[in-house]
């Protein structure tokens, strides 16, 4: 990640080094915040934010789930205000490919009670580059994590809540220690849920399958995009339960996420997926997605919000 110059904080653009909160901020101590990660792409019409409206809606829905009011420094913010703050942050920084809005309890509080704690919103734009590192474009290696994906009874699994991502952090660290770039987590019923920051797809017996939302997954915006793109390309796509064995014996596997985009998987738990090479279905979908996000396919123009 490369730093940029300015961060949007409670309605003002501040220098990167000046975007600070107190060490007793409730969100820092208890994880009380909601965030989004959104990709920015260069297109013939200039920088475009991919599916901005969908990300803003999910951010606001997450705040509703957690019970966070959208009032920062005394001003109430609505949908258009948040969308414009994100656009402004992209405009005022150079070489941006990823933007992260975060709404969090910034007030100083000792104790878990989140009631009446002041709220802040920040928007940070950075250059992330290849999220899974160099070489991932040739196929990622993943492992099954010993950490279970938290289910809907113990966390708001369908929202991007800051504190809930400690499980993903632990699973990611575990994967890296085993020489893999990602980990896949099972849910409490033993089915495949998702990776640490990505949804997962398989191609098996002539069909594309991905875990059903009931498996405590985040219903990713890139996931939603790939389901639509794959169906438009003529593939059958099913949302269903997927076992670890089905993942290991699939013809193809790939991950999807804002940061990772479309990332084919060639090895899982030290076993090759299919031939151990990126398969033709993943190649086709990844290529189509790359064209869409860079403004080369007018059919999906509505998914792009141009900054300028």
The CATH homologous superfamily of the largest domain is named: D-amino Acid Aminotransferase, subunit A, domain 2
Fraction in beta strands: 25-35%
What's the helical proportion of residues?
10-25%
Terminus-to-terminus distance = 24 Å
Order of helices and strands: EEHEEEHEEHEEEHEEEEHEHEEEHE
Number of domain modules = 2
Structural class: alpha+beta
Spans of at least 5 consecutive residues whose pLDDT stays below 50 are: none
The pLDDT mean sits at 96
CATH top level label of the largest domain:
Alpha Beta
Return the CATH architecture of the largest domain: Alpha-Beta Barrel
Number of strands: 19
Number of helices: 7
So what's the overall shape?
A: globular
What would you say this structure looks like, in words?
By secondary structure, the chain is α+β, with helices and mostly antiparallel strands. It folds into two domains: 121 residues, Aminotransferase class 4, branched-chain amino acid transferase, N-terminal domain (D-amino Acid Aminotransferase, Chain A, domain 1, 2-Layer Sandwich), CATH 3.30.470; 158 residues, D-amino Acid Aminotransferase, Chain A, domain 2 (Alpha-Beta Barrel), CATH 3.20.10. It contains seven helices and 19 strands. A hairpin with a 3-residue loop joins strand 16 and strand 17. The two termini are 24 Å apart. The model has no long low-confidence stretch (mean pLDDT 96).
